[in-house]
């Protein structure tokens, strides 16, 4: 009799998950997340973009954003822990203004997700995915003079955080900003880890407040942590064997196609 209670609870949890995503969509979400986790482990970014662009083909955006929150949070915790806390502390000391702006904007913009019409949301999510990926594929690298450093820091932080709260992804604007600063790659990776880690915590808090993340969608999000970690584990092991630049470019091209499909859905219904 005592042993039956956990089974009932587990059955109820699975029922709740299937009310959010029927089994075929849940399996589809797991497959997309597995791929996103693999790419995250191999090249250090793109999990939110993969989940947003891939899952958004069949699943409504609000559900996608809710489902990706725990995988994004915990994958970034793992990435920071794997890289070490020393570089993370140094990154905070130098780039604290950018971090603060991104985190505050994520909290603010997350509150508007439920108020945006679905078709508009597809376009809002698709346009920045395509635009930022195209910029990276073309290899354009902006440069910031010392005179424009502070205004660019503020503008990039506002853009990254604003997109982050709505779409769950603020990595591409951050990557372009750090490239424009022309800082060493190791330092760039440390800053990215901190921005992604702290930002994902703000995303969690923001969508607990917005209502997008509730008891049912939280269960879906928790379930998707499993394929995320499985993919990351394989990505970590195989990442060093890949031609990283070629793999990154193929990933970005896939995201461009997926983002273009989001725009199509938003414009054509």
UniProtKB/TrEMBL annotation:
The keyword Transmembrane applies. InterPro entries: TM_pro_TauE-like (IPR002781), TSUP (IPR052017). Pfam families: TauE. Coiled coil: none annotated. The keyword Transcription does not apply. Keywords: Cell membrane, Membrane, Transmembrane, Transmembrane helix, Transport. It is a multi-pass membrane protein. The chain crosses the membrane at residues 23-52, 64-81, 93-113, 120-138, 158-181, 193-212, 218-238, 250-267. Its main location: membrane. One of its GO terms (cellular component) is plasma membrane. It is found in: Cell membrane. Belongs to the 4-toluene sulfonate uptake permease (TSUP) (TC 2.A.102) family. This is Probable membrane transporter protein. It comes from Loktanella fryxellensis.
């Amino acid at each position: 009799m005592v042993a039956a209670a956990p089974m009932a609870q587990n059955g109820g949890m699975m029922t709740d998950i299937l009310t959010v995503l029927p089994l075929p969509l849940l399996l589809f979400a797991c497959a997309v997340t597995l791929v996103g986790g693999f790419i995250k482990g191999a090249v250090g970014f793109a999990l939110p973009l993969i989940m947003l662009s891939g899952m958004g083909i069949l699943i409504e955006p609000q559900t996608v954003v809710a489902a990706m929150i725990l995988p994004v949070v915990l994958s970034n915790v793992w990435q920071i822990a794997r890289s070490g806390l020393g570089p993370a502390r140094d990154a905070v000391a130098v780039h604290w203004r950018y971090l603060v702006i991104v985190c505050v904007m994520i909290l603010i913009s997350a509150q508007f997700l439920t108020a945006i019409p679905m078709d508009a949301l597809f376009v809002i999510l698709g346009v920045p995915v395509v635009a930022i990926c195209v910029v990276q594929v073309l290899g354009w690298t902006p440069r910031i003079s010392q005179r424009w450093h502070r205004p660019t820091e503020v503008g990039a932080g506002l853009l990254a955080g604003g997109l982050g709260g709505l779409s769950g992804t603020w990595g591409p604007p951050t990557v372009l900003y750090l490239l424009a600063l022309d800082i060493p790659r190791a330092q760039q990776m440390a800053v990215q880890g901190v921005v992604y880690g702290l930002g994902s915590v703000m995303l969690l808090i923001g969508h607990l407040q917005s209502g997008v993340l509730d008891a049912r969608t939280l269960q879906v999000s928790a379930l998707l942590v499993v394929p995320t970690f499985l993919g990351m584990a394989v990505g970590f092991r195989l990442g060093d064997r890949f031609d990283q630049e070629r793999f990154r470019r193929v990933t970005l091209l896939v995201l461009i196609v997926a983002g273009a499909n989001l725009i199509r859905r938003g414009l054509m219904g």
